[in-house]
Structure prediction request, 779 residues.
Amino acid sequence: MIRLEHVRKTYGDSVAVDDLSFEVPEGDVCVLIGPSGCGKTTTLRMINRLIESSGGLIEVQGRDITGVRPEQLRRHIGYVIQSVGLFPHLTVADNIATVPRLLGWDDARIKPRVSELLELVGLDPGEYARTYPRQLSGGEAQRVGVARALAADPPVLLMDEPFGAVDPLNRERLQAEFARIQRELRKTVIFVTHDVDEAIRLADRIALMRDGRLEQYDTPETLLDHPASKFVHDFMGADRALKRLGRVSVAKVMRTDLETARLSDAGDLDRSACGERRFVYLVDSLGDLRGWVDCLDLDAGHSAENAMTLIDWREASVRPDATLKEALSGMLGLGFRSIAVTDRGRLVGEVTLTAIEAIMNESDTHLADPVKPLEDGELPSRPTDARPDHPAGDPDA
Amino acid sequence: MRTAPSARRVDRVAAMGAAVALAGCTLLPFAEFRVNRIASGTAQPLGAAGVAGFALLALAAVALALAFAPPGRIRSLSMLLAGAALLAMTPWTLGEAAVRLQVGADSIARVSVGAGGWLAFVGGAIVWFAGSRGTSPGVRLFAALAVLAALVMSVSAGGVGQLSLAREYGGQAERFWTLVRQHFVLSGSGLGLGALIGIPLGVAASRNRAVRDATLAVVGVIQTVPSLALLGLLVAPLSAAGFRGIGATPAIIALTLYALLPIVRNTYVGLDGVSPAALDAGRGMGMSPMQLLLRVEAPLALPLVLEGLRAAAVMVIGIAAVTAFVGAGGLGILVFQGWGQQADDLTLLGAVPMVMLAVAADVSIRALAAVAVSPGIREVHQ
Prediction:
């Protein structure tokens, strides 16, 4: 838990943070957002005392931070920054081991922990542990940055625009992975960003700041639907309905009872294969999506060959951990009212525009809590059988 | 990237080295014959060395051919070997020439190294360097040791002892080694004290802007004072402080002052170049200022600090020659006496070991860097 009470930061006569009070409950993600210079990064850095506050009270896990030595405090707070800041002279494994070493863990404890963390962030320990930061891509580097922050299992995580320097495609993947990790670990997180979509996607609560003051502190839905001021309304943007789709993962609304056929049998398909559906999805022997047959074309008397479209799943499908906003964007790009859902190529479901519309009409309460949209039995990283006629949801792998 | 130079079809560096060696063997006097120590010499061609001379010529030709051979590991290794052989063969061949030329001559007659002999040696070094670029550091180290061993063997076995330089040495071996030791102690003290003072100054400069401006200005000004002038300037304050203005004390002070600039500047630049993100991350993870310095900043600044030490070492070894003027001893004495007596051999007896000291310092600090600098920040070598 993190609690700020009447926190101030002044530099001479100028006020960077003014009378800031809010509380982040255990296990929640609080996103600090606002225009440049609003004091969000200053606020974040006051919590681990990289900047000393000029007044007020800051409590982390129930303890006043001014009563703890700054080094001691920071070793128990994970810290992730936009520029990552990996130590270039150390291997990935040694980078991750930084805080455990500062805390005096022995190597027998550190080594398995490093492997565990690399797996958690989706990097193969065998391949990455001995490499140096300069050999990593931007996305890989930030995965290592997150692993390093989590190394000593701190209850609290401070993240300063962690995905801000990554290209948009990788940013969405990192966001999805962070959501998965957070669902698993339930850290208390303060996350600074200037990207409203990122805030809406990841936050349990958003603290919107302006000129060092808190404008509104509430759930993303409330900020979207009941902005406390014109500033909040304008900052959150006009496309509120669309933004709310950024709160819901594809896995939550996709349907898995699809009509599928083997690609090798596609030539023999006729109208009876379609059932009630528009598309019969074509998969290969591994269950990977290769294309579809459009039943409207079959109805119009075309042969199966002519009704068939072959695609690359990377371009014509979305991942289960993508948001409905991404799915909608994909549909618009393809020009269809539905889009296939694939997990690393394997066909697992389909999202339709109808389902998205239904979600948009639902009340806010059903949409809360975006980082935990899955129910029991849909836990992450569990491989499922690749049976094309029974695609199963495995949204997190 | 390592394969880039050897992937070129013709190795131009090796070709140039071999051409230099060939030119030395054929166009210029390989050795010089003088009737006594200070007489002017008569040029002697490579043929004066007999069979050994033709062997050396053949070796230079082989090295040239190798430069045009198909690129690859084999060619690099062969060039390394050819270069090493040239380096070892040249002194041996010179020794042979000395033995043959002195048969029947007066006992005070001398045979010294001619321009061609020097060129053959330099060409060998270039070919060796060209070959070393395409090989791994381990092979390079092994090859360097092999050259050293071959040199020692050719010097101790052949007629090298008959060359005028060797005879000059033979005449004053004891004094020579005293001077070498003095030179080593003078430059070693200057470098050691320079590092002891310069590295903390560089750290302080990276911490505080005022300290940085003052420090860099002062060490910069010191560097612009000519070495003889500095030694002269030190006399008065040292005398006032109760020290002698001549001898080893002013010499070591001067050498320390000269060593400061590259050490302070490189330490400062190295620390200043550490990425702010790495510092922020280190601090944010709970490193104390000392832990940050030792675990993050020092290893990242190390390549530049070592480069500063290397530059300082080479410079100090050179300036230590001048300190002979204030009675600090060292190899400078041989050089200056040689000039005074117009005895070139004596001058060389001082100059050649100085060059070897400088090269040894350079090579050993580079070797230290190769071991001590993390592979994560090592520059990719050609």
About this structure: The CA atoms of residues 44 and 280 of chain B lie 68 Å apart.
